[in-house]
Amino acid sequence: MAVLTMIGQLLLALTILVGLHEFGHFIFARIFGIRVNKFYIFFDFLFPLPNVLNFALWKKKVGDTEYGLGWFPLGGYVDIAGMIDETKDASQLSSEPQPDEFRSKPAWQRLFVMLGGIIVNIILGILIFWGVKFVWGDEYYSKAEVNKAGIYAYPLAQEIGLKSGDKIMKVNGADYADFGEVRAALMQENTEFTVERAGEIKQIPVPNNLIDKVATKVPFIEPIMPFKVGEVTKDSPAEKAGLKEGDKIVKIDSTPVSYFQQFQTELEKYKNKKIELVVERGGQQVKLYPVVSGESKLGFRANSQLVASTQKYNFGEAFGVGATEALSVIPNQIKGFGRIFKGHISAGNAVSGPVGLAQWFGSYWDWERFWGLTGLLSMGLAFMNALPIPALDGGHVVVLLYEMITRRKPSEKFMERTQQVGTFILLTLMVLVLFNDTFKALFR
């Protein structure tokens, strides 16, 4: 069920993003009087072979346009009359250009048609971030709340000199309000944490290549989290032993437990073994004897006892905050690419495919997380499509800008060749990302 939930969220997000991206091309084509033969969510053929396995799950002809849902769940497309793309080559455009075809229109109109998907994805991203901020606001752990007990340093954090119980006072010499700013600092170069440890102030530099390990989802730091037992999974070791929601775990065998990360670390020692669990319930201590699973779990959700702060926004404020956060995704993407070229992070760890994206959405449905990730992906899709790679919108834009500057229109054969090269590049990247993605999911 958890896997189906992850897949369902990813497919819904991609359907929204791809559908509206293609709508951006469609609407600008219509504005300039260009005929659109097809508008499809997903492909009705075996991409990139337009004449193989041609069938749709649903289709309907309205006017000149056939609207449909393809069977191959990878992207989608609009078939714009008179344009070389993944659905046709130069041989199909041997006739004289017609007034309602893409190739007969001025370069500036064709430019807007190609930018349409990117423009819509940016608008969509801003609208989603606006809505998320207005409905849910920002929930965060404040510096004061986190520093009551300090941070929990996982082995990766210990490697650079951090210790559990450290209180992070400043990031790169500046104060912070939200613990999320501490995590975000790992995306920056030459980051330094100012920490308080046992009454002393220490400077902890962060190596620039640390982000490569963090990108593999190796845990780094978290606020130390006091907790109580939340929802107990049916038929789990916890339920069978009598653990109840609201219990406070205070000991595993003879070892005192005061926060969740400590509990998890201690539980690792007892895979497939029976333990004595001491819990506080109704002012009394109760002993339970569960058997730890092979995954070092008992089967319950932890309820954090950290007090989260919530910043709410009115309609206007939410737009400003949401738009700023949405638009910040693009420069962050550029910085990320820069760090790849500098060797701080490997391309394999920086890019996620469908498996990694599905894992981002999580094993249970959370609308705030769903829309937040969908907004992030919308801005990321806009950025990726703007890259000057043949077959992507950005590749077409480069050719059109060349035409507008030189007043020389490239031949349709040239456009066909660049489309083929671009498609080959994209397919190669897709195969590599999918392989890397699957490898990480199975072996990390």
UniProtKB/TrEMBL annotation:
Task: Show the InterPro entries listed in the entry.
Answer: PDZ, PDZ_6, PDZ_sf, Pept_M50_Zn, Peptidase_M50
Q: Which PROSITE patterns does the UniProt record give?
A: PDZ
| Bilayer disposition of the protein | Multi-pass membrane protein
Per UniProt, the keywords (alphabetical) are: Hydrolase, Membrane, Metal-binding, Metalloprotease, Protease, Transmembrane, Transmembrane helix, Zinc
- Give the superkingdom in one word: Bacteria
Main localisation = membrane
Q: Which Pfam families match?
A: PDZ_6, Peptidase_M50
A single Gene Ontology CC annotation of this entry is:
membrane
- The membrane-spanning stretches of this chain are 39-58, 111-132, 370-402, 423-443
Q: Which cofactor does it need?
A: Zn(2+)
Q: What class of enzyme is it?
A: hydrolase
In short, the EC number is 3.4.24.-
Extract the PANTHER family matched here: MEMBRANE METALLOPROTEASE ARASP2, CHLOROPLASTIC-RELATED, REGULATOR OF SIGMA-E PROTEASE RSEP
Q: This chain belongs to which protein, by name?
A: Zinc metalloprotease
Which organism's genome codes for this protein? Emticicia agri
Give the encoding gene's name.
rseP
